[in-house]
Amino acid sequence: MAGETKTHEGGCRCGAVRYRVAGKHTYSGICHCDNCRRATGGASVPWFGADPKTFSVTDGKIKEYESSPGIWRGFCGNCGSPLTFRGEGWNDVAITIASLDDPNAITPESNVFLSERLHWVKFNEDMRNYDGFPS
Ligand SMILES: [Zn+2]
Ligand SMILES: [Zn+2]
Predict the structure, then answer these.
(1) What residues flank ion ligand 2 with Cβ within 5 A?
(2) Which CATH architecture has domain 7-129?
(3) Greatest C-alpha distance within the chain
(4) Per-residue pLDDT tens digits for 13-70
(5) 18 forms bridges with which residues in the sheet?
(6) For 97-116, how does the pLDDT look when each residue is reduced to its tens digit (9 = 90+)?
(7) Cα separation of 103 and 98, whole Å?
(8) In the chain, where are the structural domains located?
(9) In this structure, what DSSP letter does residue 119 have?
(10) Cα(87) to centroid of ligand 1, in Å?
C-alpha cells in the first residue's frame, strides 16, 4: 500500500548497480505504454514512485538516456536492466518494481496507458485504471 514506511533495496541483474529507497513510496502502477515496452522488452512495466530525497544509489552508477524530451530512463550500463524513470517537472523518481530484491513488497495499485495495452495482456479491472496518465 502507498504510504507504508519501509526501506526497499534493489538492483540490476548483474549486481553492478544497487539502490535503496528509505521511506514510503508515493504510488505504484503498471504502465502499458509503448515507450516502456520498448525500453524494457516487457509487455507492461510495474513502477513505483519515490521522493528523490529518499532514493540513493548505494553501489555503482545508473546510466541515463533521454528517451523523450525532458524524460530520462536509467539503467545499468553493464547489463542493461531498466531501473529508473525521471522527468523534468516530476516530483518523484519512478523505479521498476521488478528490480527490487523483494518485488512482492510493493503491489501495483493502478494501470496506466491502457489505451496502448497489448490485446493479450490481462489486467485487474478492480484496480484504478486509466487510459493515459492520471493527472
Ligand atoms: Zn547490471
Ligand atoms: Zn510507460
Answers:
(1) 31, 33, 36
(2) Beta Complex (2.170)
(3) 39
(4) 999 999 999 989 999 999 999 999 999 999 999 999 999 999 999 999 999 999 999 9
(5) 11, 59
(6) 999 999 999 999 999 999 99
(7) 5
(8) 7-129
(9) T
(10) 22
Q: How far is the CA of 119 from the centre of ligand 1 (A)?
A: 31
Beta bridge partners of 72: 66, 86
Please list, residue by residue across 80-108, b when 16 or more beta carbons sit within 10 angstroms of its beta carbon and e when fewer do. ebbbbbbbeeeebbbbbbebbeeeebbeb
Query: How is 44-96 classified by DSSP, letter by letter?
Result: SEEEEEE-GGGEEEEES-EEEEEEETTEEEEEETTT--EEEEEETT-SSEEEE
Residue 117 has which C-alpha cell?
A: 495495452
Q: What is the mean pLDDT of the chain?
A: 94
Distance, CA of 16 to CA of 13 (rounded, Å): 8
Element (H, E) at 11: strand 7-11
